[in-house]
Design brief:
single chain; 117 residues; mainly beta; 4-stranded antiparallel β-sheet
Length: 117
């Protein structure tokens, strides 16, 4: 089993920045993909960004150039730097980890990000 704990959410004005963290613990394989997803009220959960254990990143078009995903494998921690935030970025942000070719998938409890206009 793997446990994921997010932190760093909050309330920020449009144009501001936040940094989210996701601490992973448990039986983590050396090869895995971690990612951030978000879910706004009344909408489906959507991909924000992913990063492989070797550092390859992928971003949703809506956040490309504003958000930056990174990870510290030695600390089993993933980060999401959110810059130039917009009201439409308001959502609960979830940490995700996939391993064993996606057979095993884990989610954190989520952290709220609210951007005021």
């Amino acid at each position: 089993q793997v446990q994921l704990v997010e932190s760093g959410g909050g309330l920020v004005q449009a144009g501001g920045s936040l940094r989210l963290s996701c601490a992973a613990s448990g039986k983590i394989n050396s090869i895995n993909i971690m990612g951030w997803y978000r879910q706004a009220p009344g909408k489906q959960r959507e991909l924000v960004a992913t990063i492989t254990s070797s550092g390859t990143t992928n971003y949703a078009d809506s956040v490309q150039g504003r958000f930056s995903i990174s990870r510290d494998n030695a600390r089993f921690t993933m980060y999401l730097q959110l810059n130039n935030l917009k009201p439409e970025d308001t959502a609960v942000y979830y940490c995700n980890l996939r391993q064993n070719r996606g057979v095993d998938t884990y989610w954190g409890q989520g952290t709220q990000v609210t951007v005021s206009s």
